[in-house]
Amino acid sequence: MNWWVEEVSDTVHWDTDGLSIIDPRQVDHLIELIDPLRDYGFDPAVMERAFIPFRIDKDMGKNRVRLVRVKDSILESDEKLFALPDILDDENSLYADFLDHITRLRVKMLNDLFDFEQKLTVDEVEDEIREEDNADFMEGKAVHLYNEVLNVLEYMPAGWESDEDEDTPRRKKAAEDEADEDFPEVEEDDEALKGDESLKWDEDEEEGDEEDEDGKPKAKGDGDDDEDEDSDDDGDDDADDEEDEDKDKAPRRKKGRR
C-alpha cells in the first residue's frame, strides 16, 4: 500500500495533488538496496538532505494518520519514520540531486559487475526509466516517488536480469508486458466454418419458401391450383359462348294467327 499526502500545515506551499510520501517499510527497503552503492561512492548526506523525516503522531482511522516532523536521521534512526521527498523545486530540488546521484552510482556498479558489449551511460538509463514513467502517466497511473527511486535502484538492461532482480516489481511488470506481446493471435478459418453443419441456422433449411400477400408462407402447390382455377374459368366462358351461338342459329318461331 502506498501513502499519499492529503494536507499539510507547513507555511510553505506544498502542492498536495498527487504528493506521495514513503512509509517506514519502504524506507527500510530503499536503504537495503542502497547499501551495495556504498562501495561505489554513495554519499549518505545526499539522501539525508533529499528527504524530510516524519513520525506518526496520531492514528486518525480509515487508513489516515497525522504526522509530525522530526530531526532524526533517516539512515540511522531506530524509530520507524516516513520520508517526504523534498520536491518543492521539481528540477533543482534536493530530491532530484539524490536521483542523479544514485543513477550515476547504479550505472557505475553495473558496468563494473557485468561485461556489456557497450558500457551503460547515465543518459540511456534515464531515458529508459523516463519512458516507462511516461507510459504509466499516459495510462492514468499516478507515479509514486517510492517507485521512481525503486526503478533506479533495481535497473537492469534487458537480457541481463540477475536472479535477485526477477522478483522485483519492475521485473514482474516487464515480464507481464513481454507475455502480452508474445501471445499469438488466433486467425479464423473461414472455409472451415463454412463447412461446419453445426453452424447453420434454422432459417437456412426454410430458404426458398414463398409468402403470400399477408406475409404467411404458402403451402406447396398453391401456385398450381391458381393456374387450374384460371383454366376452369376459361372453360366455362367458352361453353357459354357456344350456347349463345346455338341460339342464334336456331330458326325463329313464326307468330301465330289470332
Major beta-sheet overview: 3 strands, antiparallel
Decide which structural class fits the backbone.
mainly alpha
- Average pLDDT, rounded to a whole number, is 74
Number of helices: 9
Strand order of the largest sheet: 4-3-5
Q: Which term fits the overall shape?
A: globular
Quaternary organization: single chain
The Cα radius of gyration reads 45 Å
Q: Which regions contain 5 or more consecutive residues with pLDDT less than 50?
A: 218-233, 247-258
Number of β-strand runs? 5
Gap between N and C termini, in Å? 135 Å
The helix/strand order is EEHHEEEHHHHHHH
Strand content: 5-15%
How much helicity do the residues have?
Answer: 40-55%
How is this structure best described in words?
This protein has 258 residues and is mainly alpha-helical. It has 9 helices and 5 strands. It has helices at residues 24-34, 44-50, 94-113, 122-138, 145-153, 169-182, 190-194, 202-205, 222-249; strands spanning 3-4, 20-21, 51-61, 64-69, 82-85. The strands form 2 sheets. Strands 4-3-5 form a 3-stranded antiparallel beta sheet. Strand 3 (51-61) and strand 4 (64-69) form a beta hairpin. It starts with a strand and ends in a 9-residue tail after the last helix.
